[in-house]
Amino acid sequence: MLDALFFRRWLSAAADAVDREAERLTELDSPIGDADHGSNLRRGFRAVAAVLEKEAPDTPGAVLMLAGRQLISTVGGASGPLYGTLLRRTGKELGDAPEVDTARFAQALRTGVDAVAALGGAAPGDKTMLDALVPGIDALDDSLGSFGAAREAALDGALATTPLQARKGRASYLGERSIGHQDPGATSSALLFAALADAADGIGGSREGSRG
Length: 212
Description:
About 65% of the residues lie in helices and about 0% in strands.
């Protein structure tokens, strides 16, 4: 069963991963975006780690909803609303339960991913964060709750964005010039799944999220 401590550990691991990979995320964002993805997420997840340390919510849903609100209020551009929506909708779906099993979390996370798709008007194949989020949540379902399988699927999804032409977001303005660049949003989404697997293993941070 997954309790509030697990979710705080997940978000702490995510903050560590984003902090470590921030420069690389910004490098990926430079040719097809605004060159601020890494710095924006670093600021946001640092704020998440700080507020969770201060307030320490005692249910999984409350942890995720607080984190989502913090991202929306802290992160500029599209990343804040998208990642904030992911966490808030997942947390809302979990409700007030003091702990949840992996299947319930996967169901709630899919609700969050669907909310991101609706907000951004994107689908897998559009060269966005959904290209990592959707394979990650599909693998979590198909593997009966294996966070390791979800991590690998999300990472593979992020790597597979390189040959795609962007159809949504800032990169879509570049047309064919967006081809050949790994999507930064998909890459940071893969970091979240890697951090989730690390939290499940009791390991802080993500090493596999930087593969590629």
